[in-house]
Design a protein that fits this description.
Elements (H helix, E strand, L loop, with lengths): L1 H24 L1 H6 L6 H23 L6 H20 L8 H20 L2
Helix pairs in contact: 1-3, 1-5, 3-4, 4-5
Bound molecules: protoporphyrin IX containing FE (HEM).
């Protein structure tokens, strides 16, 4: 089970790479107001949701204690990210504020995952 959990954490990290990497490629365009939510960001956000929920299930099945408040916060932030990226996925230009919120919340979720013990 430990190996399976580690594999799913690996997929969780690939999801972060896709979501954050997509955001980083658009940063120059963001300052010009012409950034768009690239498909990698939507797929990364969906990967985070699926692998995150799977990790909760696998850890519970293996009797590991999880910080449910921390996970609730991560889930809430991801829902905002996913909502914004999904709704605006076909827009040619996304306003700076919405784009910045997605990048900021993604980075916040990384540090919540790592620093909140
Ligand atoms: C953008 C959203 C997210 C980011 C950036 C993120 C980031 C991370 C990172 C970096 C880890 C590895 C931490 C470690 O092993 O020490 C992790 C683990 C984990 N994540 Fe996420 N995560 C996100 C969303 C979610 C969601 C929505 C859930 C489930 C509701 C979730 C559940 C978990 C679980 C269960 C673990 C392993 C146990 C733990 O470290 O708490 N994640 N996440």
């Amino acid at each position: 089970m430990d190996v399976l959990i580690k594999v799913v954490v690996g997929l969780h990290i690939i999801g972060i790479a896709s979501l954050l990497g997509g955001f980083l490629t658009q940063m120059k365009a963001m300052s010009a107001g012409t950034a768009r939510f690239v498909p990698a960001m939507l797929h990364g956000a969906l990967t985070m949701l699926v692998t995150g929920v799977a990790l909760v299930g696998l850890n519970q099945a293996d009797d590991h204690t999880l910080n449910t408040v921390k996970l609730g916060v991560k889930l809430a932030l991801l829902i905002v990210i996913l909502g914004l990226v999904y709704v605006k996925r076909d827009e040619e230009k996304v306003e700076k504020a919405a784009f910045g919120v997605v990048g900021g919340l993604t980075v916040a979720n990384i540090f919540i995952a790592l620093l909140w013990t």
